TrEMBL record:
Its EC number is 6.3.5.2. One of its GO terms (cellular component) is cytosol. Signal peptide: none annotated. Pathway: Purine metabolism; GMP biosynthesis; GMP from XMP (L-Gln route): step 1/1. The chain holds residues 193 to 509 of 509 of the full protein. It comes from Paenimyroides tangerinum. This is GMP synthase [glutamine-hydrolyzing]. The gene is guaA. Homodimer.
Length: 317
């Protein structure tokens, strides 16, 4: 049986022993895993942990600033790096899902590498890898094809010459949350839905532009805030919105419109390997759909994704 307190104690002792007085660099994503990994490392080695939080321009609405503030409030030694223009610039015109992931992985490594050079004599790279990441990235790499390359596993190049330290490598998500709770991390942060490293880029089907990102951020914020307001957020494992690369005809007043379609997705899961779509109340879906269409310019139709995994995946790309 898993006991978070014992895990915390043992892990901190191990990390102290393993790392000693070395410096560690860790990329924070705003998610549960990297945050819990950072707090564990911070307890073990204090100011020798250098955290970097990169804005890739594909985060949720206002998330870069709010998450950065939250990290600082937790006493983490964290630097926010706003690289949104660099990411969006390199992504321009790219439509293919795996190509998007590759570009994002590459730019992330470049940005991260630049930043890590500023930390003199760093020896270690801390990562929030958890057990399902390890399994899925192994199991999807058949000889024929990679289903989806999760860029946060093994994606960093050798030239960084850092040893990897992954304190959560043997844990499942629920165990990570329990460890986080025993470390005193804000329950709201621990309860956050998983969010993919490539962010909104894989929820914008087709090419990515800053305008599309802004539209999707608005739609996503209405949906997620709605789930919170209605007390549904914690009943859902992951939720988000997808911007489809099609226009459909609508009518607004006496005007014909020809605008974008968004899909809403909410799933129940334990580890992301399988998932069922959530039976959100019709009244709730009606309210959210109306809000989105009335408030978000450029969107005139909302659909709800009723596909489970397998055979569909959680993300659309
Ligand atoms: P799929 O779409 O494969 O997603 O059913 C399973 C879980 O993984 C997340 N996901 C990713 N996370 N980099 C990530 O860090 C990725 O490239 C990536 N692709 C999917 C997805 O959000 C879900 O939680």
């Amino acid at each position: 049986d898993f006991t978070p307190n014992a895990f915390v104690e043992e892990t901190i002792a191990d990390l102290k022993q393993k790392i000693g007085n070395d410096r560690v660099i860790l990329g924070l994503s705003g998610g549960v895993d990297s945050t819990v990994a950072a707090v564990l490392l911070n307890k073990a080695i204090g100011e020798n942990l250098y955290c970097i939080f990169v804005n890739n321009g594909l985060l949720r609405k206002d998330e870069f600033q709010s998450v950065l503030d939250q990290y600082k409030g937790m006493g983490l030694n964290v630097k926010g790096v706003d690289a949104a223009d660099r990411f969006l610039g390199e992504l321009a015109g790219i439509e293919e899902p795996e190509a998007k992931r590759k570009v994002i992985g590459k730019v992330f490594v470049d940005v991260f590498d630049d930043e890590s050079k500023l930390v003199k004599d760093a020896k270690w790279l801390g990562q929030g890898t958890i057990y399902p990441d390890v399994i899925e990235s192994v199991s999807v790499k058949g000889p024929s094809a990679t289903i989806k390359s999760h860029h946060n596993v093994g994606g960093l190049p050798d030239y960084m010459k850092l040893q990897v330290v992954e304190p959560l490598r043997m844990l499942f998500k629920d165990e990570v949350r329990r460890v986080g709770a025993s470390l005193g991390i804000d329950p709201e942060l621990l309860g956050r839905h998983p969010f993919p490293g490539p962010g909104l880029s894989i929820r914008i089907l087709g090419d990515i532009t800053p305008e599309k990102v802004a539209i999707l951020q608005e739609v996503d914020a209405i949906f997620i805030n709605g789930l919170k307001e209605h007390g549904l957020y914690n009943d859902v494992w992951q939720a988000g919105a997808i911007l489809l690369p099609v226009n459909s005809v609508g009518v607004m007043g006496d005007e014909r419109t020809y605008e974008k379609v968004v899909a809403l997705r909410a799933v129940q899961s334990t580890d992301g390997m399988t998932a069922d779509w959530v039976h959100l109340p019709y009244e709730f879906l009606m309210e959210i759909s109306n809000k989105i269409i009335n408030r978000v310019k450029g969107v005139n139709r909302v659909v709800y994704d009723i596909s489970s995994k397998p055979p569909a995946t959680i993300e659309w790309e």
